[in-house]
């Protein structure tokens, strides 16, 4: 392991905006994010596979009356967003280092108000369907964690993953598809996101890839 990673891991251990195994808070945070981590009753917004946390921190800057949590298993990635939030004094953002498959171990039913799935690995092979973050397996985990009328946002550059997700969501009676677009930056939702981009979104957009987006909720 590189010295840089070791330094980052040590800073994550010290930074109170990072919740991870080995910290006492990791064992007690489920159902208590507002009380323990944020000390307020603002809505919780969670970004899955947040990477370096650009999107999580960007949302937190623009929506100070909501609490944002970026989830990723890579501590060296979330260190970046954690450090930026600390340097800027952004108190309504936190990071959770865990596998997304274990999300329900860190959040209680009805605890999450919005869920962002941003540029996940598409896992294009049919045999990998269950690993896609929009697959039925994951939807059944998200459903009880979201509050009634809670929103799911999904953004991707991958046409195959988007078409798979759109077809699946349209086929489910328990999902209300609020809207979708195959060209986000020409859509009515563009301005709602304040120009916030993940690293991958910027990279793909700069290459001319159209960004796909949908929003839905369970009913």
Structural write-up:
- The chain is an alpha/beta fold.
- It has 8 helices and 8 strands, in the order αβααβαβαββαβαβαβ.
- Strands 1-4-3-2-5-6-8-7 form an 8-stranded mixed sheet, sandwiched between helices.
- α1 crosses α5 (75-88).
Draw up the topology in text:
Blueprint: H1 3-14, E1 18-19, H2 24-28, H3 33-38, E2 44-48, H4 54-62, E3 67-72, H5 75-88, E4 93-97, E5 112-118, H6 136-145, E6 146-156, H7 159-171, E7 175-181, H8 199-206, E8 212-218
Parallel strand pairs: 1-4, 2-3, 2-5, 3-4, 5-6
Antiparallel strand pairs: 6-8, 7-8
Helix pairs in contact: 1-5
Brief write-up:
The chain is an alpha/beta fold.
Main sheet: which strands, in order across? 1-4-3-2-5-6-8-7
Please tell me what the overall shape is: globular
Percent of residues in helical segments? 25-40%
Tell me the series of helices and strands, N- to C-terminal. Answer: HEHHEHEHEEHEHEHE
**Tally of discrete structural domains:** 1
Structural class estimated from helices and strands: alpha/beta
Which parts are unreliable, with pLDDT below 50 for 5 consecutive residues or more?
Answer: none
CATH class: Alpha Beta
Gap from first CA to last CA: 46 Å
CATH topology: Rossmann fold
* Number of continuous helical runs: 8
Name the CATH homologous superfamily: Vaccinia Virus protein VP39
Query: Which architecture name does CATH use?
Result: 3-Layer(aba) Sandwich
Q: What proportion strand? A: 15-25%
Largest sheet: 8 strands, mixed
Give me the Rg, rounded. 17 Å
Give me the count of strands. Answer: 8
Mean pLDDT: 94
């Amino acid at each position: 392991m590189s010295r840089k990673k070791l330094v980052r891991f040590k800073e994550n251990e010290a930074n109170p905006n990072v919740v991870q195994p080995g910290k006492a808070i990791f064992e007690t945070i489920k159902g208590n994010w507002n009380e323990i981590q944020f000390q307020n009753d603002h809505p919780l917004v969670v970004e899955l596979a947040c990477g370096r946390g650009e999107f999580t921190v960007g949302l937190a800057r623009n929506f100070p009356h909501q609490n944002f949590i970026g989830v990723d298993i890579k501590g060296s990635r979330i260190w970046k967003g954690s450090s930026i939030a600390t340097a800027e004094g952004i108190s309504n953002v936190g990071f959770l280092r865990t596998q997304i498959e274990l999300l329900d171990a860190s959040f209680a039913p009805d605890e999450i108000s919005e869920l962002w799935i941003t540029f996940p690995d598409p896992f294009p092979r049919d045999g990998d369907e269950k690993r896609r973050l929009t697959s039925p397996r994951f939807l059944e985990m998200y459903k009880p964690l979201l509050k009634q009328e809670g929103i799911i946002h999904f953004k991707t550059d991958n046409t195959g993953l988007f078409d798979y997700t759109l077809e699946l969501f349209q086929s489910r009676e328990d999902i209300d598809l609020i809207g979708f677009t195959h060209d986000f930056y020409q859509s009515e939702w563009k301005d709602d996101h304040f120009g916030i981009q993940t690293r991958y979104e910027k990279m793909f957009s700069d290459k001319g890839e159209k960004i796909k987006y949908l929003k839905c909720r369970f009913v």
